[in-house]
């Protein structure tokens, strides 16, 4: 059997994601692990899958002008989306090549009628380039939703929370490719030296404006270098690097990280503590325990004790009290849409409500384990106030022994300090603020 090309493989992934309701990153990894594509084709498959999912609503809007009302099989619709994505959003692929490949795939998978239909639709789109500018009828939310390919309910919600212009900026940022960033491990490496070494090995490397521990890498495979294998750095988004410093951990302290896997922030905490003290790193999923242990081992960290527990059960485990607690809570993830575009299509308002309830319970439960005078950081990678500010506000209102710590700014880099809210205790980073993940960080203190 002839080997499958990049577009054929991308189409398989898109079909599986839709039919099995599975995650594109898992399906992609599954498929790419089993193929023998070269690096550039791996890049193309990845881009085609993420890009097509990202722009789905815009692509479907254009398709509706040509196949509206007709029943189209899932694989044919995905083939049309995939091809339109190349035509509109990938400069490096000639339009004729995209159409030709699509027709060949259609012939292979279907009958001649399907191939003619695919050919006809794509050529019609090419003949009418203004179709991309035809904005749908309807209100602002609907128009933004189609133009920037986001679900209407989410756009409507963001307009209410952030206004129209900010909503457009969020959606636009969500459609950009994320930077690749790393956090230098000070236990093993010096930032300037590593910057130099990586520049020679993988290409352009810059200092992060957001985190003093961060570097941005353009091109290259950050997890493939010998410095990664030797534990000189961790791959982490820049805004996520703000969380551990916000907890202000000091060497010798007892720290609890209650939702710790895969260990990105736990290991950062240990690095900031100079690997002195104790960190209990807990997660509910047994299979994730090794991820934390392996990360600590690779980075040369000894103070992390990974355990498996539902965070709601931690007070019954006889662990005593802690100087610092991190609750990096499970969340809707709506701040990391650019990395996981499926999220925006899969999440519902009901999901946000349900996870907010769990988040509040987690905060309430873990707060009982904080020593007097201790600090607790609550963080999420979402931009939904229901999961962020509302949780923290309600918590301090119902727990007078806790206060918002209005000195959070002291432990954040200058570049982000004007994003700290007027309470001085929390910061909401939106995806377009620094072209990073959307993140929320709040700091509470026990009186
Ligand atoms: C946002 S992720 C944590 C990321 C981690 N802090 C890092 O920086 O690598 C949330 C984690 O919470 C865990 N989790 C979900 N529900 C939990 C619960 N009830 N108790 C403990 N952990 C939970 C998930 O398994 C997931 O690993």
Write a concise keyword list for the protein shown above:
N-utilizing Substance Protein B Homolog, Chain A, eight-stranded mixed sheet, 12 strands, globular, four-stranded antiparallel sheet, binds S-adenosylmethionine, Alpha-Beta Plaits, 48% helix, single chain, 447 residues, 4 domains, alpha/beta
Q: What does it look like?
A:
- The chain has 447 residues and is α/β, with parallel strands linked by helices.
- The chain has four domains: 6-133, Orthogonal Bundle (N-utilizing Substance Protein B Homolog, Chain A), CATH 1.10.940; 140-174, no CATH class; 180-235, Alpha-Beta Plaits (2-Layer Sandwich), CATH 3.30.70.1170; 239-446, 3-Layer(aba) Sandwich (Rossmann fold).
- The protein has 20 helices and twelve strands.
- The strands form two sheets. Strands 5, 6, 7, 8, 9, 10, 11 and 12 form an eight-stranded mixed β-sheet that branches. The chain has a four-stranded antiparallel β-sheet with strand order 2-3-1-4, with helices on one face.
- The termini are far apart.
- The mean pLDDT is 95.
- Bound molecules: S-adenosylmethionine (SAM).
């Amino acid at each position: 059997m002839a080997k499958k090309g990049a577009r054929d493989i991308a189409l398989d992934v898109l079909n599986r994601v839709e039919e099995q309701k599975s995650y594109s990153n898992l399906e992609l990894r599954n498929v790419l692990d089993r193929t023998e594509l070269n690096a550039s084709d791996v890049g193309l498959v990845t881009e085609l899958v993420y890009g097509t999912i990202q722009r789905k609503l815009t692509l479907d809007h254009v398709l509706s002008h040509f196949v509206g009302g007709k029943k189209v099989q899932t694989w044919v619709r995905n083939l049309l989306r995939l091809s339109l994505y190349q035509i509109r959003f990938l400069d490096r692929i000639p339009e004729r090549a995209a159409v030709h490949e699509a027709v060949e795939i259609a012939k292979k998978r279907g009958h001649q009628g399907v191939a003619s239909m695919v050919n006809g639709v794509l050529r019609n789109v090419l003949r009418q380039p203004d179709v991309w500018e035809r904005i749908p009828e309807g209100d602002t939310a609907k128009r933004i939703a189609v133009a920037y390919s986001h679900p209407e309910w989410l756009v409507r919600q963001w307009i209410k929370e952030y206004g129209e212009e900010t909503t457009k900026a969020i959606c636009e940022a969500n459609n950009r490719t994320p930077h690749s960033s790393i956090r230098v491990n000070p236990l093993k490496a010096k930032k300037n030296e590593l910057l130099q070494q990586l520049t020679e090995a993988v290409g352009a490397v810059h200092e992060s404006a957001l985190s003093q521990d961060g570097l941005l890498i353009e091109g290259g495979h950050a997890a493939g270098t010998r410095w990664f294998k030797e534990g000189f750095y961790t791959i982490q988004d820049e805004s996520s690097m703000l969380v551990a410093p916000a907890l202000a951990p000091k060497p010798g302290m007892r720290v609890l990280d209650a939702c710790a896997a895969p260990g990105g922030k736990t290991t950062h905490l240990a690095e900031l503590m100079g690997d002195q003290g104790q960190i209990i790193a807990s997660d509910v999923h047994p299979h994730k325990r090794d991820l934390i242990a392996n990360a600590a081992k690779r980075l040369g960290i000894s103070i992390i004790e990974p355990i498996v527990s539902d965070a709601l059960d931690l007070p019954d485990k006889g662990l005593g009290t802690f100087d610092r607690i991190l609750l990096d809570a499970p969340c809707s993830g709506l701040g990391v849409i650019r990395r996981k575009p499926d999220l925006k299509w899969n999440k519902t308002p009901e999901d946000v409500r349900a996870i907010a309830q769990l988040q509040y319970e987690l905060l309430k439960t873990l707060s009982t384990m904080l020593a007097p005078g201790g600090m607790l950081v609550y963080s999420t990678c979402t931009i939904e106030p229901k999961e962020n500010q509302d949780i923290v506000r309600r918590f301090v209102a119902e727990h007078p022994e806790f206060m918002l710590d209005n000195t959070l700014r002291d432990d954040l880099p200058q570049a982000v300090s004007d994003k700290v809210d007027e309470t001085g205790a929390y910061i909401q980073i939106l995806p377009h603020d620094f072209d990073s993940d959307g993140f929320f960080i709040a700091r509470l203190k026990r009186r």
